[in-house]
């Protein structure tokens, strides 16, 4: 429990220095409440989540919650992440929605790596087949673009728990014009 105290102190001092005093006080009260009423497993999950908010810019909020490591080569992409309690369902196994999130994220990001300049893709349709429960420590995936059309890309994705295939997905992605910067 000492590491929880140190984490709380570090976060408290970081927030204390920020100019948004009322906001910091509200967060401090919420954190104290979380530390007082939750068990060690829940606190570990909260710490895992909070540790991703490190001040470095990332592409999306999802990448802060689920820090996927992705790599791309041509029309193939891979994803790897250590499984945490934030990914499990109430049965203590990898949640099917998280598996679909991983597949969709990898397939869409892969497409966006290879689309023509000025274009992006958005998910049009996705089908996911589950073959086995996910109980391993490391979740990985491999996606392959199987067709690049003028308006749609078709992609397949396999998701593994350790080295066991747990899901197979297919997705179609619409090409759209790149939106203006926000």
Describe the structure.
This is PaaI family thioesterase. With 182 residues, the chain is an alpha+beta fold. The protein starts with a helix and ends in a 5-residue tail after the last strand. It has 5 helices and 6 strands, in the order H-H-H-H-E-E-H-E-E-E-E. Helix content is 38%, strand content 32%.
Please specify the SSE layout and strand pairing.
Blueprint: H1 2-17, H2 21-37, H3 40-51, H4 61-65, E1 69-73, E2 76-82, H5 96-114, E3 119-130, E4 138-148, E5 152-161, E6 164-177
Antiparallel strand pairs: 1-2, 2-4, 3-6, 4-5, 5-6
Strand segment count: 6
Mean pLDDT rating: 85
Question: Helix tally?
Answer: 5
Largest sheet: 6 strands, antiparallel
Helix fraction by DSSP (H/I, runs of at least 4):
25-40%
Shape, please? globular
From the helix content, strand content and strand pairing, which structural class follows? alpha+beta
| Proportion of strand residues | 25-35%
Biggest sheet: strand arrangement: 1-2-4-5-6-3
Q: pLDDT under 50 segments (min length 5)?
A: none
For the CA atoms, what is the radius of gyration? Answer: 19 Å
Termini Cα gap: 42 Å
- Helix and strand pattern: HHHHEEHEEEE
């Amino acid at each position: 429990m000492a590491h929880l105290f140190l984490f709380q102190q570090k976060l408290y001092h970081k927030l204390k220095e920020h100019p948004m005093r009322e906001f910091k006080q509200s967060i401090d009260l919420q954190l104290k409440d979380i530390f007082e009423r939750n068990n060690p497993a829940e606190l570990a999950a909260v710490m895992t989540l909070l540790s991703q908010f490190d001040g470095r810019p990332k592409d999306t909020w999802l990448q802060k919650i689920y820090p996927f490591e992705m790599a791309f080569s041509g029309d193939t992409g891979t994803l790897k992440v250590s499984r945490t309690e934030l990914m499990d369902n109430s049965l203590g196994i990898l949640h099917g929605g998280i598996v679909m999130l991983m597949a969709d994220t990898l397939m869409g990001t892969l497409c966006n790596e290879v689309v023509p300049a000025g274009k992006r893709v958005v998910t049009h349709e996705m089908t996911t087949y589950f073959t086995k429960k996910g109980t391993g420590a490391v979740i990985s995936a491999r996606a392959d673009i199987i067709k690049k059309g003028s308006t749609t890309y078709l992609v397949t994705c396999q998701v593994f728990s350790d080295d066991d295939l747990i899901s197979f997905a297919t997705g179609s992605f619409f090409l759209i014009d790149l939106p203006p910067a926000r």
